[in-house]
């Protein structure tokens, strides 16, 4: 009778509502599922569910117990029904045992309030008046203001409902205590209509997740996640852990951190069945609530999980061991000039020698006896050996004993001198720089150049990571060649796909190996090891985010807080905290005066030794030729 009057009144006022007769509902779980899920878009609702239960204690327990077990009965899918829903239990025939019963039944529902009106104190008319005021005022004010305070609205309508009534009742709500859930009296309505409220009817609304414990998974990946073992106890810290702690403080939840058994990030187990391993696999199987690690967003992963707002943007590069500078110091005298310049200078010497020889031999200047006699008495460049040694001496800034006497010869020689001055000046300036500063260059600077050195270098990346997946599934020919190379190397060396960063760095330090990873981890490795160097090319841009289960209700609630954290500048503060302050190897790149060691000028001694050897060889030829001539004369 009372509910019929309530329905008629709400219909007259045009207030939208949905009413169910619990005695005729065969599947309470299905009913809650319909209420929780938007039937048009099949997505969890974003607004709170305001539910008023007016029925016998038996059915009230049935409904609340079904809500308690909703996640377990919902194919194991995680929902936030316990947080989104607000339960207002109203009755006029409840006994005092209602509080003990509901305290057990609704132990994990955040918002449960009870208005119990014993039969001997209330009439049906009084009950209808209270109930009608509650529902009507709440619906009307919510329609006028979507951001209204539900608890405050209920306070106002309870006061209005009890005006003119000579009876009174108490209002109780379930509170979170350290010892568990307990009903607490938050106010009374006295017989004179005065309402006294000590706190909100739903005090847990503004307390986030009310210390609920989430199961999180992560993987050590400095400086984002650092694993610390102390006396058998494992703790985590780092950039991501600071972000997690701030979110836990804001949203009022606790967490337990585990790691995937396979130690992988998330790659295909079966591309046909679209199943993943590692962290992504844990989310796909809904074994955990969230991934708190620098997991990169990929289109393939988006199909089985959700990502939070990105907290870090990154690029991929390659790190290798610096070439041994001592191994190439024998080339110090050749390094100041490119090989093309050396070849050009070497080719210019014989060409100019031939030209000066022909000019001196066939110039009309020596057609007179006087000039010819002068040339013959003082020497000239009209012979092959005299022309060569003069031009060679000019190249060394020494010149020769005799100058050409003809104007044409002197013109050519003067410009040859200018050429020699420019070349020698450039060479000397560069030689000083090369002796002062040690060149630290990578053996290659692009992926294409790395592929060209396949016979010298092997390369690898983190197994089960996004790089592993990209290089195996991409259509980019360069990336695909890199992936094919890793697959080939993996047959004889499984460590090229090791999931541990430290394992790859150790391989790089042994030489002839290149690790493909994110720029941050490579910079951290270069900070610790001065013998490492990164190539210039950066590729595969990535964004790091926390991971949630597919269509998780946690994502929309975390999103605004992560945006606020970024806008507050906390991410930059944490970056300064966990990133290396300065690279102690940076001083090696600064030019400074230093003594020249024997190793630096070893090439000069090689030249001296070559000259001695050639001199002895020529001496041997001269002795042989001289003896042959003497033998012929005899």
**Overall body shape:** rod-shaped
Annotation, overall tally of beta strands: 19
Tally of DSSP helical segments: 23
Q: Gyration radius, to the nearest Å?
A: 44 Å
What structural category characterises the helix and strand content? alpha/beta
The percentage of residues in β strands lies in 15-25%
Q: Quick recap of the structure?
A:
The chain is α/β, with parallel strands linked by helices and 634 residues long. It contains 23 helices and 19 strands.
Overview of this structure, please?
It is rod-shaped and about 150 Å long. Among the domains are: 2-197, no CATH class; 336-436, Orthogonal Bundle (Helix Hairpins); 598-634. It contains 23 helices and 19 strands. With 634 residues, it is α/β, with parallel strands linked by helices. The longest helix is centred in the C-terminal third of the chain and has 32 residues, at 602-633. Strands 7, 10, 13, 14, 15, 16, 17, 18 and 19 form a nine-stranded mixed beta sheet that branches. Helix 9 crosses helix 21. 45% of the residues lie in helices and 17% in strands.
